[in-house]
Batch of 2 targets.
Target 1
Amino acid sequence: MNREPWDDWKAAWRETPPVDVARLRRHVDGKRKRMLCFVGLECLVSLLVLVHLGWRYATVNDGSLLGLIACGAFLVVATQLLMLALRRGAWRSKSTAPADLLRLTIRRCDIGRRLILAQWICSAVCLVAFGAWFALEYPALLESMGRDRLDFAIKVNIAAQIPVTLALAAWTAWYLPRLRRRREMAQRLLAELDGE
Amino acid sequence: MNRAKRDRLFADALRDHAGLVARVARSYEADAARCEELRQDIALALWRALPAFRGEASLATFVARIAHNRGIDHMLARQRDPQGAALAEDWPDPLPEPVQRVEIGERQSRLLAAIRTLPLGMRQVVTLALEGFSHQEIASVLDIETNAVDARLSRARRRLRDLLGDPS
């Protein structure tokens, strides 16, 4: 093997501009604080939702609303558990070897696709369940709330559901191809490693 | 690992191996702004991974492993290979003579462009070898056999020589 080009490449490679270490540290500190705030906020929101549902459950006397509140709290917890169950094995690789990380990426992409599918199925099930509950409870709700208040509640519900569903559909249309491309890239890189 | 020890290790790693981080980042990203982002990502990943550092291997090999893994993540996020962009103006470090600076800049530019065209396995091995890691250390960083390092490096050198020509 000719040593000359290698030594020359090595010399060229080692010529590095100075790195602003203080700036790197500032970035890491800032990012850590933001991540901590985000996790804290997420926990706080979940807690507030559960506390609110608990408070509503304790103070509301209407039997039909009590059932809805209990269903809501159950759905919050069940959704979280379902997401955790689906993600099992997706967080950590067996090792930090590049090939294992690429295999993990492929697995995460597959899980991501399953999560999206599960999300749509859950949404559809919730919608059907709510529709069925509403149909069953309609006479009681009409009696307790009156037609005007009930109509208003239905309109608010529809006005809130439509943009959320459209946004979710748009996000799915954007995210799924991205997930597919990421998976293809990971497979190609893995082939580059395995093909050695 | 307690917070003080982690902070101290992190400071040591950045002080001693910021150059390694920058060079590995350059092998995964040609665009200067994105390369800076990748350096920052590597630094953050390093801080997060430090509790796993047991001191069985050197800090340099630990940093190299984190840097390469973040490089792969970066490629996956970008969903494209890194070649194509021009050499950043901040590369290389100011040298005494402008002519010499241009010469080294050009040599680095060609070398980096050639390295970025290598398949991932060869690229990782060759950048670590250029950093001065032994074959055993490279095997440890990439979690592969030493034989595989030898084979990949030999092929990578041949490929680089074909791409860059023999300057001697």
Note: The longest helix of chain A spans residues 98-145.
Target 2
Amino acid sequence: MLHEPAKPVKKDPAGPYKQRLGIWMFLLYALFYAGFVAINLLNPEVMGTIVFAGLNLATVYGFALIIAALIEALIYNAMCHKKETELEEKPEGKA
Amino acid sequence: MAIIVFIAFVVLVVGLSFYLGRKAKSSSGYYAAGGRIHWGVNGIAFAGDYLSAASFLGICGLIATVGYDGFLYSIGYLAGWVVALFVVAEPLKKLGKYTFTDAVDANYNSRGIKLTAAISTLIVSLCYLIPQMVGAGVLVEPLLGIPHAWGVIMVGVIVITIVATAGMASTTYVQFLKGGLLIIFSTILVWTVMNRGLSTQPDQGGKVPFYQYAQVPASITDGKIQSDELEILEQVEVSSGLTFVLANYQGQENWWHAIETDDTLMLQESQSVAIKPEGKWINGAPESETNKLRQVGNLEQIRGEKQVETGSLSMVNFLASITDKNTTVRTWKNSSFNDAAGDKVTVYYSSDVPGDRYMRPGLKFKVEGTLLERLDFFSLMLALFLGTAALPHILIRYYTVPSPASARKSTIVAIGAIGFFYILTLFMGLGAIANGVMNPADSNMAAPLLARSFGELLFAIISAIAFATVLGTVSGLIVAASGAVAHDLFDRYLQIKMDDRQKVTAGKISAFVIGGIAIILGILFKGMNVSFLVGLAFAVAASANLPAIVMLLFWKKTTARGIAASIIVGIVVSLGLIAFSPELYSLYGLNPLEAPVPISNPGLISIPLSFITLVVVSLLTQKKGTRVLSTPN
């Protein structure tokens, strides 16, 4: 019902595109995460600054890191899916 | 009630395993559930695998005791999934078959990689197993009223049954069930917490009267503390600024904490456990059904008001009320020493923290401390970020889905489910301290005890889910570890001739042995915070496995010897640094200040060292370890 049959893994023409995209999205998130760690290390008092509706930067930044991961993941999936569909329709096309 | 729900859960889980066991006769079925799991199911099963005892018990407990610092684990654990999705998910699915070793060795067919990757899988799985088993004991002790050791043994036996009957198929469905229920009931728990709101005198919905700890003025003359209101019998200075007195107050002897401010000295009533020759004494009287440590935690002030009940709050208002600089959170610490009679005494004493301090980093991780303390924090955040994509029991879940696209989609479902749960941990942890449900002797029970304050049914369900959490994660870890032994070592490294049926049998025997080892370790490590222990497992995984995965995907000069060397260096350095760290010195009963390694989290040293080793050895062995296949794309 829910299960697909096991498929042998075949050549993926969208592979190089997805790998490049993955690296860029990883770097983008890593930068955001590094900003959080850097503020804590260099100026931790700033984390106590109230930034929204009585919530401090630590709470807002923490939630933002969690939500940003999901948003980036959805964008990544949409772009990968689009490229996969595109290359399936044009098998001779390059990624 | 709790026991009935608990037993029903266990019967359901074990019954499911036996049912699915009929479908797991081949090695593909045993190790990878036949590669036929739907990505949606696999995504929630990922959440089930990942939201272990550390997440549910450990993080909530840490948030309750050290505030925002506990939430840092939630942030780091979730961020790690970004690495898994963008870097590892699809390539790993293309490369591997059953185990992490399969993937790393796919391009090389190297005996060195098979051996080192299998050992790494085994060590990381065991490191991760320890906190799960500790969590199991902690959970079962109050739930069923049996000792910690028996709780660990019980979990071990049930898990071995689950794994030995159906391997990855049963593990996947146990994880799916548990992951889904954990998220649903955690949401219900948070909703009830918001509905109750905050109070400076929490009484658990009228079930447990609020206990007001006495405070009396005192003075000090020639180093001796005196008070008109107490008969002081003994004085102990544990360390500079931390002094306790044994005093007779209203006919009962108990320990009081001396709190010195600029111009006043106050004595604050505490709780204590004394181990005497005649048995355990709690708060100056023998331990009994009616004399146990009181549950603790409350807000002394909410937005500057000392006696207030807020009523129902929105999630933002709940957080804002605690974050307010005029809110005071009463947390609890402990200190142990020998009294004049030579008895070991542990005093649990309160410590008031302003809300704005409690809700930003710094209570546990000294981000405002010395350079070494800051580096320790950086090291932890690095290991959490890089560790997820290197955990063997997470990596093998990529082989249970039919295609690389399914691997990607299941990771996204996992990020959504896990991220949502981690947001809830902040509310559960804060709810536990604000509602006065904390056990001062063990922070790991914060979430289940919070549930109990809303009634026995919710407690029973949450405890049963927490128990299933442990069962599920331990099952996944044992599948990963047994795969390393039976598939990687026996079948591929030692090349012992086995037919498909014998391979499954070898996996099941390995599961028995590893389960036995996990039981012993779970008993030995009793008492350590499970989230801290998982943090260390992440550091070992990130050091031993991640450099190999990343470099084989992105650096064409990577050789088999480079990978094998980096795995060995990652394991040895990370475990070595942990073994001589301050936290482990405390566990050995030694002075943590004398630990030769000054930081508790090894990732900052061991991860770069493992990467450097891979690069150097690969460059030195270019002719000896060439690839036999190209990187799949």
Note: Chain A has a mean pLDDT of 83.
